[in-house]
């Protein structure tokens, strides 16, 4: 099974133009900031909105083609959807919610309920068949929504922020369970998320969408190793700079300079610095670091046992230090500070 889609549409300020290819041997996640076009792309695939231009093909069958005038309505598409808020019918039991998709496709009531009961058993909710959505926890509602989507045996499964409505205590367990169900599903699987943990644990391949365009695609490890936009770099916790390399120095787009160890690299490049490779000082440091910049602290964020310090200056960056270092240096928004990084700690690759 395979999905091939060219999606072009305009909605308000969003100008979406993305190409999607997915197979049934992988889970693909759309990752990106709010308003980037992720959910709009999913809605087009589901048939909740048509393309202004382009096409959608699933297993060689055309579902949407603006030029040819083809548009298959949602209820006739072999697609299952799990919405962010699940959209369970409040006055139907869990059993009848799962049976609804089957009934809407013409299955007789008894047969639909029998299949729905089997699916509730698969997701561990056989004892809650008579419960209405209000009596279910967030995790249980998510499983009912997933069972409803899978019961129709779709060839394409779409999940829009499937874990976003869950509280933190439930997310880990439901994430593991969802991963198991996704692995066992025999079809194309696409999910939308803005959470890098969900993307890394649930998907085989990420498609990063920014401002309506695909900015990067690949495995989580590949994208983390070589981010190609500030959004991706911030997502994986790295400092990213775009500029030109010449004789061991990268001049960034903002006019700053970074000394690098790789003198053979020339031309347009990305330079990446891990926040943990950035050292902070109250006065200008001396010694081995070839990169030293004066700046002003703009944010101090505690993350577990470490503290991320955002610094504005000729080379704006984020440093990750200990709480003891923050207290010793008196770091707070508005503080003046010197940052330093060794040339050998800067990774450079072609832009």
| First-to-last CA distance | 34 Å
Determine the CATH topology of the largest domain.
Rossmann fold
In round numbers, the mean pLDDT is 90
> Which superfamily, in CATH terms, is the homologous superfamily of the largest domain?
P-loop containing nucleotide triphosphate hydrolases
- What radius of gyration results from the CA coordinates? 25 Å
Count of helical segments?
A: 9
Low-confidence stretches: none
Tally of structural domains: 2
Shape: elongated
The main pleated sheet reads as: 6 strands, mixed
- Residue fraction in strands: 35-45%
Structural class comes to alpha+beta
User: What is the succession of H and E elements?
Assistant: EEEHEEEEHHHEHEHEEHHEEEEEEEEHEE
| CATH class category of the largest domain | Alpha Beta
Describe the protein in words.
It is a single chain. The protein is of the alpha+beta class. It folds into two domains: 2-225, P-loop containing nucleotide triphosphate hydrolases (Rossmann fold), CATH 3.40.50.300; 237-350, RNA polymerase II/Efflux pump adaptor protein, barrel-sandwich hybrid domain (OB fold (Dihydrolipoamide Acetyltransferase, E2P)), CATH 2.40.50.100. 26% of the residues lie in helices and 36% in strands. It contains nine helices and 21 strands. A six-stranded mixed sheet has the order 7-8-9-3-10-11, with helices on both faces. A five-stranded antiparallel sheet has the order 2-1-4-5-6, covered by helices on one side. A five-stranded antiparallel sheet has the order 14-13-12-15-21. A hairpin with a 4-residue loop joins strand 18 (306-312) and strand 19 (317-322). Helix 3 (109-122) packs across helix 4 (138-151) and helix 4 packs parallel to helix 5. The chain is elongated. The model has no long low-confidence stretch (mean pLDDT 90).
